């Protein structure tokens, strides 16, 4: 089998113990996915597998076999930024940029969760669509840390995108 990474089929690593993070960075040279805590606590390594966010430091590359992995490099269309990337720029959702790739991937998945009606911990009515509130977005992004304090801009970017899609 093969792993599809950003639309390209690649052979899985020979060593089944390799994390997806190490596979992406070391074998495929996709260094946009960052190494943060390497323990699943910071979200810097967030990527998408079949459209759902995962922490690549806690995911074995073998678990992505036969699946579609999207990294920050795979979101843009050539030189055109993905809508989430553009919103982060427009709303000052970044400072140093280290956490930004993971934040953008998490926000992309978050927008899909809102679209499909997936509830979060703070969703009040589980029978209705999740509300488009800053509190809802903060909860859904709580696994992605920003040490620079760009959270307000990140929330503003996601809120603007979520409101534009309704």
Alpha-carbon distance between the two ends:
39 Å
Instruction: Enumerate the strands of the largest sheet in spatial order, edge to edge or round the barrel.
Output: 2-1-5-3-4
CATH architecture of the largest domain: Orthogonal Bundle
Q: H/E order of the elements?
A: EEHEEEHHHH
**Unreliable spans:** none
Work out the helix count. 5
Rg value: 16 Å
Oligomer status: single chain
Shape: globular
Average pLDDT, all residues: 94
Count every beta strand, where a strand is a DSSP E run of 2 or more residues.
5
Most strands sheet: 5 strands, mixed
> What do we call the CATH homologous superfamily of the largest domain?
[2Fe-2S]-binding domain
**Total domain count:** 2
For this structure, the CATH topology of the largest domain is: DNA polymerase, domain 1
Strand content: 5-15%
CATH class value of the largest domain: Mainly Alpha
Structural class: alpha+beta
Provide an overview of this structure.
By secondary structure, this protein is an alpha+beta fold. The chain folds into two domains: 3-74, Ubiquitin-like (UB roll) (Roll); 83-164, [2Fe-2S]-binding domain (DNA polymerase, domain 1). The protein is 33% helix and 10% strand. It has five helices and five strands, in the order E-E-H-E-E-E-H-H-H-H. The protein has helices spanning 20-27, 83-90, 100-116, 134-140, 151-164, and strands at residues 3-5, 8-10, 46-49, 52-55, 68-70. Helix 2 (83-90) crosses helix 5 and helix 3 (100-116) packs parallel to helix 5. The chain is globular. It starts with a strand and ends with a helix.
């Amino acid at each position: 089998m093969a792993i599809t990474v950003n639309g390209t089929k690649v052979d899985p690593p020979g060593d089944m113990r390799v994390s997806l993070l190490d596979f992406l960075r070391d074998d495929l040279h996709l260094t946009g996915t960052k190494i943060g805590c390497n323990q699943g606590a910071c979200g810097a390594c967030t990527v998408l597998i079949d459209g759902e966010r995962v922490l690549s430091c806690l995911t074995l590359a073998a678990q992505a076999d036969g699946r579609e992995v999207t990294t920050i490099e795979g979101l843009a269309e050539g030189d055109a930024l993905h809508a989430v990337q553009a919103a982060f720029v427009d709303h000052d959702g970044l400072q140093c940029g280290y956490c930004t790739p993971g934040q953008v991937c998490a926000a992309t998945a978050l927008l899909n969760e809102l679209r499909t009606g997936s509830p979060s911990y703070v969703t009040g009515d589980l029978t209705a669509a999740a509300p488009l509130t800053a509190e809802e977005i903060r909860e859904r992004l709580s696994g992605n840390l920003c040490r620079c304090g760009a959270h307000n801009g990140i929330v503003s970017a996601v809120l603007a995108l979520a409101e534009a899609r309704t």
